[in-house]
Amino acid sequence: MNNNIINLKEIIQKSNNIVFFGGAGVSTESQIPDFRSARGIYAQGEGNRSRSPEEIISHSFFRENPTEFYDFYRQKLVYPEAKPNSAHLVLSKLEAAGKIKAIITQNIDNLHQLAGSKNVLELHGSVYRNYCSGCRKLFALDYILNSKKIPLCDVCGQLIKPDVVLYEESLDQNIMERAIKYIAQAEVLIIGGTSLTVYPAAGLIRYFTGQKLIIINKSTTTFDKSADLVINQPVGEVFAEVYKLLSEEGDIIG
Ligand code: CNA
Ligand code: ZN
Questions:
Q1: Closest residue (by CA) to atom 43 of ligand 1?
Q2: What is the pLDDT of residues 10-25, one digit of tens each?
Q3: E strands, 16-124, in order
Q4: Tell me, what DSSP letter sits at residue 226?
Q5: Residue 49 pLDDT more than 60?
Q6: Is the separation of the CB atoms in 167 and 35 below 8 Å?
Q7: 27 CB within 6 A, ligand 1
Q8: CA distances (Å), origin 146, targets 65, 74, 141, 143
Q9: Average pLDDT over residues 172-201
Q10: How far is residue 19's CA from residue 82's CA, in Å, rounded to a whole number?
Q11: Residues 137-151 pLDDT 10s
């Protein structure tokens, strides 16, 4: 067991006010590709595809080319078969044990909730909620996946939009304010699986003034120098190892 894992375990043992801030790297061990890794979506060029993923998942592109948007979206951004990995599962146990106060995620895959976490703040929405842009009727993910081309509302015929924050769109103010509050009041902030390059989400971590900042990421980030502990290992593996130590010492039940 390496020292980093032991340090992280001790930090978790000492605090009941931990906030977790995560991104796409939390779900790569559930076989959902992230955006910026070597095998991430941005690196998976599609031969003759002339547009960048950022362009396709933007608000104006969605409005102007919904067919192309939905082709890309269904293929690259929705993973209904994905299951939570050790990171999601251990975070959920830590919440149940009263250690984690909130999970703030940039992910749209619902895996924290599937793992049983209760207080999940979804900064970028969720693929599981979809609204008619005309009458606001709510649709489940299946409706989007089962529509042959673009999903249209069965009541008013208007285009349905995933409740996902696209480029050019702003984040939900209420969720942002709650996220800031949790981060500003946290004793420990654990950041995992995020390149910390997408704003305004990444800017939230500046509100942290607590005691220990931990970054668990496969690659380096520009915030590493501000961290008390940096662990460059897969986040699921890290949490599995921490959990093993905590349960051996009788600190988490279940
Ligand atoms: P990103 O920019 O793709 O960065 C991911 C980071 O995680 C990279 O720095 C990787 O090195 C690192 N990483 C990858 N796998 C692991 C791992 N197993 N353990 C530790 N580190 C790992 O993704 P961000 O979340 O920072 O960017 C924000 C975007 C990506 C958000 O808007 C998300 O909505 C969007 N996204 C979400 C999902 C999802 O919901 N699962 C998937 C792909 C993209
Ligand atoms: Zn409608």
A1: 34
A2: 999 999 999 999 999 9
A3: 18-22, 100-105, 120-122
A4: G
A5: no
A6: no
A7: yes
A8: 19, 10, 9, 5
A9: 97
A10: 24
A11: 999 999 999 998 899
Q: Ligand 1 within 6 A of 34 CB?
A: yes
As a whole number of angstroms, the distance between CA 252 and CA 235 comes to 19
Instruction: Give the ligand at the shortest distance from the Cα of 234.
Output: 1
b/e per residue 199-234 (b: at least 16 CB within 10 A): eebbebbebbebebbbbbbbeebebeeebeebbeeb
Kindly identify the ligand whose nearest atom is closest to the C-alpha of 195. 1
Mutate to test the pocket of ligand 1, among 5, 27, 35, 107 (most ligand atoms within 8 A of CB): 35
**Overall pTM > 0.90:** yes
How high is the pLDDT of residue 253? 56
Q: Closest ligand to 220 CA?
A: 1
Q: How far is the CA of 136 from the centre of ligand 2 (A)?
A: 6
Element holding 4 (H helix, E strand): helix 3-14
User: With pLDDT > 90 as the criterion, what percentage of the chain qualifies?
Assistant: 88
138 CA → ligand 2 middle, Å: 9
Atom number of ligand 1 nearest to Cα 194:
26
Q: Is the CB of 231 under 6 A from ligand 1?
A: no
Beta bridge partners of 139: 130
CB burial class (10 A; 0-12, 13-18, 19+) of residue 2?
Answer: exposed
Q: Is the separation of the CB atoms in 188 and 210 below 8 Å?
A: yes
